[in-house]
Amino acid sequence: MKRTQLIVALVLYTVVLVYFSFAHLEESSLRGLQIDKFYHGLAYAGLAALLTCVVQRRHSILLMVALTVSFGLLMEAGQYFIPFRNASITDAAANGAGAIVGAYGGVWLRARLGLGKR
């Protein structure tokens, strides 16, 4: 996979993530299970994995986690100002957990795709 394709995928993924962060969504019918935390983790794992593949630097895990967590915090802060959304510390924690898993997954994916280290 070419780096340009990864960058396009990252941009599109980020646009979709921003859309769903601010869209008016129906709440899950499984209220007690907090299933949305799983979705948060999964979404931010994908973002961190793509970001790690795009950057392609050795020892970049901490930076990718920091960037992904910062982005997640910005999205949560932005939700504070949207009438039908609310900022949530548990959502931010799920985003952070997903970022950690995704950054490590991105390193694995980078190796599987044969992407070089710069």
Mean of pLDDT: 89
Sequence stretches where pLDDT stays below 50 over 5 or more residues: none
Q: How does the helix and strand content classify structurally? A: mainly alpha
How many β-strand stretches?
0
Global morphology: elongated
The ordered string of helix (H) and strand (E) elements is HHHH
Percent helix, as a range, is over 70%
Number of domains: 1
How many helices does DSSP assign? 4
Strand proportion: under 5%
Query: Cα-atom Rg, whole angstroms?
Result: 15 Å
Distance between the termini: 16 Å
Major sheet characteristics: none
Relevant terms:
118 residues, mainly alpha, 71% helix, elongated
Topology:
Layout: H1 3-22, H2 35-55, H3 61-79, H4 89-112
